[in-house]
Structures are given as C-alpha cells and as structure tokens.
C-alpha cells in the first residue's frame, strides 16, 4: 500500500512570510483571519525548472493586479516579490518544483468590511511533479462537462486570481474525479466554452488553433506563452467565442497552465480527439523553452 502523502503543514524547509524566511511548520495564521472567512486572498502558481522560476516577473505583476481587483495593495514591490520567490527556492534547495505566493487580509478586523486588516504575503515552494497522472497524460485526459459555469465579469472580479473564484473549480474537479474523469470543462455564463478547472484550453481544426477569448477567466501566462510558440511555428491562432457543439469538428485538444503545462485531451463528454502533430509539437516546444537554461536555445523548425 502506498504511503499517505505528507500533510502540507507538516513538512520540513522554509517559507518566506512577511519579509523573512521562517521554519515551514511555524508558518501559521489565526482562525479569525479575514481571508479564511470571506475569501479575501489572491495567489499565484509558478514552476521552477533547472533552478529558475519561469516567467517570474509576469507572475509577480499579476499577483499585484489580482490584489487590486480585490481592493487591497500588497506591501511589497514586484521586484521584492521576485527576490522573495528566489530566496524561498534557494532556502529549500529546490531545482524543479512549484512556487505558491499568497497574499491575504489578516485577523485585525472581522466582518465584511475589512479596511483595517493587515495585508500579508507568504511564499511556499515544494517539489511537485506532473499535475495529472503521467499515464493518463500520455493517453490524453478524459474530461467531463462541468455543471457550474464561470461567472459574468459583472458579478465577480474574474480577472483576479482570487482564492474564492476557485471554489466551484474544486467542486467540479471532485465531481469529475468521482465519475472517473481527470478534470472538467467549464462553460461560461453564456454557455460558451471557457476553460478547465485550472487550465486554459485549445482546439485544432484544419491546422489552425482555436481558443476561447479570456473575457471572464484568466488569460493564463502559459496560455500566452503557447500562443507565442504557435506563432513562431507559423501556426494561425484564433481567439474567439466557441460553443460546445463545435467540438464535433475539432481534431485535437489540449490544456495549458503552470501546473498542467501543455497536456493533451482525448475526450470531453461525448467528443473525441487525437493527440496529433500540433499538440505534440507544442508540448515539445514548451518543454524546450522552460528547460532552455539546461538544454540551450534550440532552433524551432516549421511544423511538418
């Protein structure tokens, strides 16, 4: 029988918290922390490859923007957050892994109003391999279609990577896994395709990439990176509204995200896809890009 995973509050190492590195197990907050009750927290997910944090400054900038969307300001500059992330990686001797910056309202005030709360910032790093089971990833993920939908931007700060917005993602991820799927495809409030529970989505039709407009969900950093890689290959990328029934006409599908990286999809509800040349090429190109410090910059040839 496989050993149970070690709880995240019982690990060794160091966490950067409010300006200093402290022992991992000492990084605690009080029960009456505002963020725990009212969701007043924003976060980032970043990956370390060969000792370097990929697109670090872009992530730190987005953390600041997310905080503004929740009406608070992080008391550290983008450059200071960048350095704190590097310090946490170095202190934990991490070569490949995951970085989680988190900013939140503290315990100084309890209630919906929270102007008097202190804004905290912490950064944890840990070894985290493939987000999805490697065998499932090799065959292409099986996704179901979620019941909850991404909300109208007039009802929530959908451009922020806000902790509270992931509540419905957790529900749908659990629902999918109980039914034997790896993840779920979420539609938006209009019934258009939005994203998976924690990753953006792309489709291929006749050699052209199609991806939903990120008007009510995050325009992911990995998403933008993959669009850039595709254009370097001479591939056409169309960002547009996509309805679920259009999946009948798509030949390939993959999802992108810091945790997911570039992961092929073989099934979404009744729709089927193959792991084709474009998906494989972009998987390889992304891997080469994030590992460029070790492998060197490789010349990208044209598809085919």
Question: What this model shows, in words?
Answer:
The protein has 304 residues and is of the alpha+beta class. The chain has 8 helices and 16 strands. The protein has helices at residues 34-38, 56-69, 78-91, 134-139, 167-178, 221-232, 277-290, 292-295; strands at 14-17, 20-23, 41-43, 46-49, 52-53, 97-105, 119-126, 141-145, 183-187, 193-196, 200-205, 208-212, 237-240, 252-257, 261-268, 271-272. A hairpin with a 5-residue loop joins strand 9 (183-187) and strand 10. The chain is globular and about 55 Å long. The model is unreliable at 295-304 (pLDDT under 50).
Task: Write the SSE topology.
Elements: E1 14-17, E2 20-23, H1 34-38, E3 41-43, E4 46-49, E5 52-53, H2 56-69, H3 78-91, E6 97-105, E7 119-126, H4 134-139, E8 141-145, H5 167-178, E9 183-187, E10 193-196, E11 200-205, E12 208-212, H6 221-232, E13 237-240, E14 252-257, E15 261-268, E16 271-272, H7 277-290, H8 292-295
Parallel strand pairs: 8-9, 8-15, 12-13
Antiparallel strand pairs: 1-2, 1-7, 3-6, 4-5, 4-6, 6-7, 9-10, 11-12, 11-14, 14-15, 15-16
Helix pairs in contact: 2-3
């Amino acid at each position: 029988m496989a050993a149970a995973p070690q709880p995240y509050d019982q690990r060794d190492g160091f966490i950067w918290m409010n300006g200093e590195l402290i022992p991992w197990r000492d990084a605690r907050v009080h029960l009456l922390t505002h963020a725990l009750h009212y969701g007043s927290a924003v976060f980032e997910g970043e990956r370390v490859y060969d000792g370097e944090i990929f697109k670090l400054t872009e992530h730190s900038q987005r953390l600041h923007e997310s905080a503004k969307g929740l009406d608070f300001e992080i008391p550290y500059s983008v450059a200071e957050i960048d350095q704190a992330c590097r310090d946490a990686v170095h202190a934990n001797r991490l070569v490949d892994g995951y970085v989680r910056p988190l900013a939140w309202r503290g315990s100084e005030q309890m209630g919906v109003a929270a102007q008097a709360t202190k804004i905290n910032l912490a950064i944890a790093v840990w070894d985290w391999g493939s987000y999805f089971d490697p065998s499932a990833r090799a065959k292409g993920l099986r996704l179901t279609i979620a019941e909850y939908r991404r909300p109208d931007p007039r009802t929530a700060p959908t451009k922020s990577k806000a902790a509270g917005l992931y509540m419905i993602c957790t529900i749908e991820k659990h629902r999918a896994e109980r039914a034997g799927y790896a993840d779920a495809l979420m539609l938006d409030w209009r019934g258009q395709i939005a994203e998976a529970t924690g990753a953006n989505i792309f489709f291929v039709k006749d050699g052209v990439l199609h991806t939903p407009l990120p008007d009510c969900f995050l325009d992911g950093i990995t998403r933008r990176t993959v669009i850039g890689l595709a254009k370097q290959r001479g591939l056409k990328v169309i960002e547009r509204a996509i309805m679920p029934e259009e999946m009948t006409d798509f030949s390939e599908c993959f999802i992108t995200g810091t945790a997911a990286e570039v992961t092929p999809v073989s099934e979404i509800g009744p729709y089927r896809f193959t792991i084709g040349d474009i998906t494989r090429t972009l998987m390889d190109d992304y891997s080469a890009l994030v590992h460029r410090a070790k492998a060197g910059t490789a010349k990208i040839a044209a598809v085919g």
